[in-house]
Design a protein that fits this description.
alpha+beta, 60s Ribosomal Protein L30, Chain: A, four-stranded mixed beta sheet, two-stranded antiparallel ribbon, 3 helices
Length: about 130
């Protein structure tokens, strides 16, 4: 195990994230991934399909580095529509678990007015700590 989840005693258990993560090992910083595929095409203008593709893109970068989703220790989600994000939490949880598994790193979600790609409605950046070679 490359990391340990830190949640504070007496605090409510976080839903879908950790309060902190203690990790040691080679670090992989994954730039913001958006909902387009390997050809730079968006499969949909909708939130959930873009979120699913962004998570798949993160998993692809992890795999290319020799890592896997359980090595994620931090994620920041940038969404252009807070209400779309909140309305999709149940389905988003299923998609997340299918791609990332039951790993819940330290996460932050932020609503932003725009992203650099006009069609993008979500961007996720991540940090992973890989096992020592």
């Amino acid at each position: 195990m490359t990391h340990k989840t830190i949640n504070l005693e007496g605090w409510p258990r976080p839903k879908g994230y950790a309060n902190g993560v203690l990790a040691q090992g080679p670090q992989l910083y994954i730039a913001g991934q958006i909902g387009w595929d390997e050809n730079g095409k968006f499969p949909s203008a909708e939130f959930l399909p873009q979120a699913e593709q962004a998570l798949k893109n993160i998993a692809s970068v992890l795999n290319a580095s020799g890592g896997s989703p359980e090595h994620l220790v931090r994620m920041t989600w940038y969404v252009t529509d807070k209400q779309a994000y909140l309305a999709s939490l149940s389905d988003l949880g299923e998609i997340y678990t299918k791609i990332i598994g039951k790993n819940y790193p330290a996460m932050t979600a932020v609503e932003v007015s725009n992203l650099m790609e006009d069609q993008a409605v979500i961007e996720i950046e991540a940090t992973a700590v890989l096992p020592e070679a």
